[in-house]
């Protein structure tokens, strides 16, 4: 880390790991990543710009003040992809949204469990449910 600024090498490695995890799950890892300053006292690593997937492709903002921890950044990118999936289901798969919302009334929990599943750390029932959601998504 250079003066508290995210090292681009860390971002490249995290994106490589993020891509490998999503490809392994059969998901399209295409996103636009933009570096942003944290605003005020916000302490965040990455954020999904809501509804951006319905344009060209999802946009993730990555904080330039993030420490150079590849694993933490990779997990954060995967967590944000969990929000992309939940949003898709909410707007495009209403029946599945009812199931997802019943299991995960808080979308943050789904995003966390998706990141666990994508990194092979999910509990078995979580992995089964998350994989069911993934399998319902359109290919490509």
Describe what you observe in this structure.
The structure is a single chain. The chain is 54% helix and 9% strand. The chain is mostly helical and 140 residues long. It has one domain (8-134): Zincin-like. It has a three-stranded mixed β-sheet with strand order 1-3-2, with helices on one face. It is globular, with a radius of gyration of 15 Å. The model has no long low-confidence stretch (mean pLDDT 90).
* Overall 3D form: globular
Lateral strand order in the biggest sheet? 1-3-2
**Helix-and-strand structural type:** mainly alpha
Determine the strand fraction and express it as a percent band.
5-15%
What is the CATH class name? Alpha Beta
The total count of helices amounts to: 5
Main beta sheet, described? 3 strands, mixed
Architecture per CATH nomenclature, i.e. the level-2 architecture: 2-Layer Sandwich
**Count of structural domains:** 1
Low-confidence region ranges:
none
Q: What would you report as the Rg, rounded to the nearest angstrom? A: 15 Å
Report the CATH topology name.
Zincin-like
The level of helicity is 40-55%
Distance between the termini: 35 Å
Q: Which whole number gives the mean pLDDT?
A: 90
**Helix/strand order:** HEEEHHHH
Q: Using DSSP, what is the number of strands?
A: 3
List keywords for this structure.
single chain; 140 residues; mainly alpha; Zincin-like; three-stranded mixed β-sheet; 54% helix; 9% strand
How are the elements arranged and paired?
Elements: H1 8-24, E1 32-36, E2 46-48, E3 59-63, H2 70-92, H3 94-103, H4 107-118, H5 124-136
Helix pairs in contact: 1-2, 2-3, 2-4, 4-5
